[in-house]
Amino acid sequence: MFNFDEANKKGKEAIDTALKSYSDVSKGFQAIAAETAEYSKKSFQDGVSHFETLAGVKSFEAAFELQSTYVKSAYENFVAEATKLGEMYADLAKNAYKPYEAPVAAATKAASKAAAAATAA
Q: What's the angle, vertex CA 76, arms to CA 70 and CA 78, rounded to 5?
């Protein structure tokens, strides 16, 4: 028989889980946006500083060496930032799924039990 109190309790649990997941995802995206903005700001400042230094160089060889050093540094910084953002996205996915682990496990267990009972009969 259908139990309204049990259905109400399950519905409340589902809403609480969804709200917690939404909150965690929102915080994760805010952290990613802040990190991206900070990297963009630093990258722009580094570029301006490099251009100012490059403008004062007197020889082609010095300019070439300075440019090579800058490109290498910019590439290394980009790879480090991409790795960091990748880890942040992975953590975001894990945290977003975490509230659903217990309900999904319980539902899977109940479905398995029901399937076993149906095949036994």
A: 100
The answer to whether the CB of 77 falls within 8 A of the CB of 43 is yes
Q: Do the Cβ atoms of 84 and 31 come closer than 8 Å?
A: no
Residue by residue, what is the 3-state secondary structure of the chain?
Answer: CCCHHHHHHHHHHHHHHHHHHHHHHHHHHHHHHHHHHHHHHHHHHHHHHHHHHHHCCCCHHHHHHHHHHHHHHHHHHHHHHHHHHHHHHHHHHHHHHHHHHHHHHHHHHHHHHHHHHHHHC
Angle 80-81-87 from CA coordinates, rounded to 5°: 95
The pTM of the full predicted model, rounded to 2 decimals, is 0.73
Tens of pLDDT along the chain (121 residues) come to: 567 787 788 888 888 888 888 888 899 999 999 999 999 999 999 999 999 999 999 999 999 999 999 999 999 999 999 999 999 999 999 888 887 787 778 878 888 888 888 787 6
